[in-house]
């Protein structure tokens, strides 16, 4: 194995609490334990395409453990293996049907890494970004993956960093709307992120004592949710809290799409189901309903203590994995242990979803929560 002297760190996809603590842990471990040179790739894969590297020293990471976002910036659009073609004026080149055309520009990125003498690339990302990580690994780049996403939907790891902070924020959101629900006898609907996985809504819904939890894995019948709210009211409960995943599906299986971002690798942005559910529940129950969308508030701000510790463990383990030559692998939390798994296995599998018959759903149901099923 070639001796590892220079490494680079890249943060890709949506920002997430814990990115900076991972950057800090990788940089500190690499410099102080192994005397490596550390570089940051700025702006995610976009920066890798453009060779945008900066040197990182201990002083650059000293004060970042409390900071949300990423000091290296990120991009959630750029898949270098399927990159939209632009003409000399910067306009997209389209085919005869008006669709974008694509090319594979990954060789450009590999050349930048070679030119900079980078021996290993640490990629902090979710399933989209780690798919590219796997593809760079297949091209011979020494890649180490670190599992990031507030959605916690990545296969082969129990928890991604960022999830704990995001569910704490979502729980706080549920706690806060409870006040208005109680004071005004309203149905308070809170829309929670998570794409097509219901982990965030399920955890926050249990922690925030929601009366109904609507998640993508359990298609909901709005009539059943309304019946539950009416029954609670008949029993003297004058307000209701409904936690709904942005990706929740009614019985017709459709999700509510907020917007389509044409040049994004994952073009669908979900959103709007909370307002729809509130409107329907108001009509069906006769009680006033309001919707709140937490949106990017869930992704922002300082990482929780739990995420800072998990990120530090991941960062440290990632450097150790690199020094053992464990390329093409991702550090992962299984039980209480940090282990490593092949990126081929992580990406080869479907994303991780809530089991509709699993323990957490049973716990919620035992607490009287309605899933609309
Ligand atoms: O994957 C993280 C996430 O926050 C999802 O929960 C959400 O659907 C999506 O990213 C939003 O992406 P954007 O910041 O591009 O709107």
Spans of 5+ residues with little confidence (pLDDT < 50)? none
Looking at the structure, what is the overall shape? globular
| Percent helix | 25-40%
Distance between the termini: 55 Å
The arrangement of helices and strands along the chain is EHEHEHEEHEHEHEHEHEEEHEHEEHH
Computed CA radius of gyration, to the nearest angstrom = 22 Å
Strand order of the largest sheet: 3-2-1-6-7-14-15
What average pLDDT do the residues reach?
97
Beta strands, count: 15
The largest β sheet comes out as: 7 strands, mixed
Cofactors and ligands present?
A: 6-O-phosphono-beta-D-fructofuranose
Strand content range:
15-25%
Q: How many helical elements?
A: 12
Structural class: alpha/beta
Describe the 3D structure.
The protein has 373 residues and is α/β, with parallel strands linked by helices. It has helices spanning 19-34, 44-50, 58-61, 106-116, 127-138, 163-184, 199-207, 222-234, 273-285, 305-323, 343-348, 359-366; strands spanning 6-11, 37-41, 53-56, 83-84, 102-103, 120-125, 143-147, 187-192, 212-214, 240-245, 257-260, 268-270, 289-293, 329-334, 337-342. Strands 3-2-1-6-7-14-15 form a seven-stranded mixed beta sheet, with helices on both faces. The chain has a four-stranded parallel beta sheet with strand order 9-10-8-13, sandwiched between helices. A hairpin with a 2-residue loop joins strand 14 (329-334) and strand 15 (337-342). Helix 1 (19-34) crosses helix 10 and helix 7 packs parallel to helix 12. The model has no long low-confidence stretch (mean pLDDT 97). It binds 6-O-phosphono-beta-D-fructofuranose (F6P). 6-O-phosphono-beta-D-fructofuranose is lined by residues 14, 76, 126, 149-151, 193-195, 246, 269-270, 299.
């Amino acid at each position: 194995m070639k001796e590892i002297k220079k490494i680079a760190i890249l943060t890709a996809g949506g920002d997430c609490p814990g990115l900076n603590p991972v950057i800090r842990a990788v940089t500190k471990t690499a410099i102080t334990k192994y005397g490596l040179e550390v570089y940051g790739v700025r702006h995610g894969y976009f920066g890798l395409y453009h060779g945008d590297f900066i040197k990182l020293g201990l002083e650059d990471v000293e004060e970042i453990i409390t900071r949300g976002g990423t000091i290296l910036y990120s991009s959630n659009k750029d898949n270098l293996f399927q990159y939209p073609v632009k003409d000399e004026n910067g306009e997209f080149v389209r085919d005869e049907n008006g669709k974008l055309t694509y090319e594979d520009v990954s060789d450009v990125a590999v050349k930048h890494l070679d030119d900079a003498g980078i021996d290993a690339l640490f990629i902090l990302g979710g399933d989209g970004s780690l798919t590219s990580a796997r593809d760079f690994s297949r091209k011979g780049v020494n890649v180490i993956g670190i599992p990031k996403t507030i959605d916690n939907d990545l296969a082969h790891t129990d928890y991604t960093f960022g999830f704990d902070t995001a569910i704490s924020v979502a729980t706080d959101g549920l706690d806060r709307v409870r006040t208005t629900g109680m004071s005004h006898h309203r149905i308070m609907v809170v829309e929670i992120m998570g794409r097509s996985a219901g982990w965030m809504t399920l955890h926050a819904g249990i922690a925030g004592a929601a009366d109904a939890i609507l998640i993508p894995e359990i298609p909901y019948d709005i009539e059943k949710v309304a019946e539950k709210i009416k029954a609670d009211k008949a029993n003297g409960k004058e307000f209701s809290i409904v936690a709904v995943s942005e990706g929740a599906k009614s019985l017709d299986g459709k999700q509510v799409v907020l917007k389509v971002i044409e040049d994004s690798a994952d073009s669908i942005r979900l959103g709007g189901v909370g307002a729809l559910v509130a409107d329907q529940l108001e009509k069906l129950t006769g009680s006033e309903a309001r919707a709140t969308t937490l949106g990017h508030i869930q992704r922002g701000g300082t990482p929780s203590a739990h995420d800072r510790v998990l990120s530090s463990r991941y960062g440290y383990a990632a450097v150790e994995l690199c020094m053992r030559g464990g390329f093409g692998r991702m550090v992962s939390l299984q039980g209480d242990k940090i282990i490593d798994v092949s990126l081929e296995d992580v990406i080869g599998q479907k994303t991780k979803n809530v089991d509709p018959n699993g323990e957490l759903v049973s716990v919620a149901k035992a607490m009287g929560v309605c899933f609309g099923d």
